[in-house]
Amino acid sequence: MRTLVIVPARLKSTRLPNKPLLKIEGVSMIRRTLERVLASGVSPVVLAGDDPRILAEAEGLKGVFPVMTGQHHSCGTERVLEAYQIMQKELGPFDVILNVQGDEPFMDPGMVGDLVRELPHRLKLAQFWTTVTPIKDAEQDDINVAKVVLDRSQNALIFTRRRIDEAYKHTSIYAYTPDFLKTFCNLPPSQLEVSYRLEQMRALDHGFKVNCIPLPYDAVSINDEGDLKKAGVTQFEIFEG
């Protein structure tokens, strides 16, 4: 199974200014995320950014292809599709595309590798997959933590940012077949996607399955300064450029 990892990043963030370039102990968030992905051993890796300063953060990282994408995308998945269409001309077709979001500087590299090893067993269940893990009690009321309730086939019933019974924590790695990636991006944003600020709701709202893969990895996605504190970060610098 030929797999491509794409890390989408946009400069403008509503909750944390210039988030990809925020420095954590002297190293940018996006570079830390790329280093985690590279440590998984899954390759090739594409950095899909909308600003040359983001792409510059991949300098010296062997195996990372920086790709400039537009500023018009409504979600990271749309940016992933543009990057895939650009890179396909150079690298050829792939069976599965992984979307590792650019605000995962503390992600365990093992999660990427385990996901890739599990996917061949789930190809008949869906064309869109994502990772989940048991949720901690302390995160039940954290709106920065997306929650998901699963059916018996481990397909998502609902994603939400609010407390909900029998939920898992969504750990923010997506995987798609190329065909589904194109289908998803041709769908209009749904009402719940916009209301919940959760792009995966677009798939559910249009009747598509999202198969969830429980893995024993947790991490703090960085959405605001509160998440930095939750991750134990004591030294950070917001990029003001």
TrEMBL record:
GO molecular function terms noted in the UniProt entry: 3-deoxy-manno-octulosonate cytidylyltransferase activity
Superkingdom in the source lineage: Bacteria
Pfam families for this protein: CTP_transf_3
GO cellular component terms attached to this protein's record: cytosol
Biological process annotations from GO: lipopolysaccharide biosynthetic process
Keywords in alphabetical order: Lipopolysaccharide biosynthesis, Nucleotidyltransferase, Transferase
SUPFAM superfamilies for this protein: Nucleotide-diphospho-sugar transferases
NCBIfam families hit by this protein: PRK05450.1-5
Database matches in PANTHER family: 3-DEOXY-MANNO-OCTULOSONATE CYTIDYLYLTRANSFERASE (PTHR42866), 3-DEOXY-MANNO-OCTULOSONATE CYTIDYLYLTRANSFERASE, MITOCHONDRIAL (PTHR42866:SF2)
Record's protein name: 3-deoxy-D-manno-octulosonate cytidylyltransferase
Lineage of the species this protein comes from: Bacteria, Pseudomonadati, Pseudomonadota, Candidatus Lambdaproteobacteria
